[in-house]
Description:
The complex is a heterodimer.
Chain A: H1 14-33, H2 47-52, H3 58-75, H4 82-92, H5 100-111, H6 117-129, H7 171-179, H8 187-198, E1 206-215, E2 219-220, H9 222-231, E3 241-248, E4 251-256, H10 262-278, E5 283-288, E6 293-294, H11 296-299, H12 304-314, H13 324-339, E7 343-347, H14 356-369, E8 372-377, H15 390-395, E9 401-404, H16 408-418
Parallel strand pairs in A: 4-5, 4-7, 7-8, 8-9
Antiparallel strand pairs in A: 1-3, 2-3, 5-6
Helix pairs in contact in A: 3-4, 4-5, 8-10, 13-14
Chain B: H1 11-23, E1 27-31, H2 37-48, E2 52-56, H3 63-66, E3 68-70, H4 72-84, H5 90-97, E4 103-105, H6 107-113, E5 118-122, H7 129-141, E6 143-146, E7 150-153, E8 159-164, H8 172-177, E9 179-183, H9 188-198, H10 204-219, H11 228-240, H12 248-253, H13 262-270
Parallel strand pairs in B: 1-8, 1-9, 2-5, 5-8
Antiparallel strand pairs in B: 3-4, 6-7
Pfam families (chain A): VWA_CoxE (PF05762)
InterPro entries (chain A): UCP010256 (IPR011195), Uncharacterised_CoxE (IPR008912), vWFA_dom_sf (IPR036465)
Protein name (chain A): VWFA domain-containing protein
Amino acid sequence: MSGRPEHGYPDPAAAARAALDRILAGVSSHAASHPPADTPPPTPPDERGRAEADDRPVDERLYATITGFARTLRAAGVAADRERTQNMVEALARLDVTRPMDVYWAGRFTLCSGPDDIPRYDRCFAAYFGGERALPVRQPAVVTVTRHVVSLGDDGEGGQEGDGDVVPMTASRVEILRHRDVARMTAAERDEIHRMLALLEAARQRRRSRRFTPAQRGRIDPRRTVRDTLRRGGEPARLRRRTHRTRPRRVVLLVDVSGSMAPYADTLLRFAHALVRREPRATEVFSVGTRLTRITEELRHRDPATAMREVSAAIPDWSGGTRLGEELKEFLARHGSYARGAIAVIASDGWERGDPSLLGSQMARLSRLAHRVVWVNPHKGSEGYQPLTGGMQAALPYIDDFVAGHSLAAFEDLAALLAGKQSGKTR
Amino acid sequence: MLEKHGYLADEGLATACFLALRMGRPLFLEGEAGVGKTELAKTLATVLDAPLIRLQCYEGLDAAQALYDWDFPRQLLHLKAAEAAGVHDAERLEGELYDRRYLIARPLLRALETWPSVLLVDEVDRADDEFEAFLLEVLSDFQISIPELGTVRAERPPVVVITSNRTREVHDALKRRCLYHWLEHPSFEREVAILRKRLPECGETLAAQVARATARLREADLVKPPGIAETLDWTEALLTLGARDLDPALAAASLGALLKYREDQETVLRNGLLDDVRPA
């Protein structure tokens, strides 16, 4: 910032200069003549009173004041980083530091970066420059984890684990298994499903990149054609062509590991493992429950069993409650860039313990960031399922694909969806 | 000054424009559709008496469409002409081929080469993130390098206005470079003033009634709350219908100019949101 040249606007081109002078004069006089009633300012700051109580040079004092203000904002959740703080100082240098409204706007233009920041900014501004130095420190959220037992409502025959002796697999048996709900499988059957999941062809949808690559067909590549022609002394050579390069589209998978998802979590994580194995650079996996945990690294292990061991050690909140809204918010705040242009997959039954409206607003943000939002709900596979839970209701408007995730067949469909191939199967 | 050209800015927006000009930084405008983001860029251009260079963003927009491209047919013509003239000095030929006159300047390059100018990067949220990174590069140094030609640098940066409708989050790095301003719907007084300014034949009474009605509709839960553009359309429609005073029947008859979604019109009529518009 400091190295940047001063862009001196009022200069040459006589007409332009006149116009600029007019606007500069116009803007400032307009601003001065405008009563602040139009835009509700927070409590007017008392910048002058503070300045007199200190005998450090003005610049230093100003800088300290602004740095402190930025810190207050950061505590309130506004991303007022150092560069932004610097920008505010730079902006203030061109305004009148003694005018509260100038200070207000200089900070708002430079420190805020979204509509959500503005109410926070107003609050902090009033608190900081209004004299109360006591700053609004971010309240640590009170987390209550309820371990609850959920009847899945659809448990029927064969829910017991370990009642199966190993039966040799036949083609028809595999076919039956493919469509069975994993929650109702025996341990041996589930092992078999996990082996098949590891072999799942988890190809990835491609997205067009801005870069070009030489190709046999496609648009003419003028640069290469002309160079080629030139090399032959102007003799028209064959036309070179180019096409846009493609890249695998990133998938961000959020796996709910809360109590109600326990029968499916293991299988879902193995599915995640297959995704990571296939596209290590374009897959991100997080577990959600009561804590958001990034488990991509753990899933990079080649061997599924090792990966699963690592993952279970990494996840601190197995079978706890669900605070999807809060965690989605945290995900977007901390790792939001992963979701940009990606396919966001949320695997959860939508049993939200928290406030469904928070989940709704976070889903709205996610849907703005992501290329597509896919929701995998294991219960969707069961007959007569209706997305009635509060969480599901809040999230539904922002979902592009709502799919089942209870059986191997469902996972194959999901994999096809992520690969950009719509399978003909019903889901 | 903006006012003279029919754009009524509040103190915040006026300060934002002032700072953007003084600091040579892009102005990043966000806000609901129809609050006057694009309009501001146009007005700035008029006020500064500078050309408005508009880059409309869309998914897949790339450098060749935003920055520059070589004029391939003309290059070949030149080559043919040189051949006819018997020029065989390859190096010289190449130098001639990649001459500035064969370069087609797209909006970004044109804005860097023109001063003064107002560059409007409209709806940046529609472009993909790779384009944002590229834009950031251009807007940081106000220079671009063309491999065959060298670096083009703006002697003075253009005035840049970037708008976003928030259909997608825009990269933080880009926002950080800019002065960020969230535009609100205008206050009641300002909206009345805008209506009177833009439609001089509109009387004080009608303007106040319209402003009050639209303010209420913005509070209601509509798919697309009316922006200033819609308010202006509506007022014009009412004026065309010969209205000097708003009444529910007239309002219902001209509602299509204000609300562009069928659901919204139904909501408004069903809930009688415009039934008591008359008392001004």
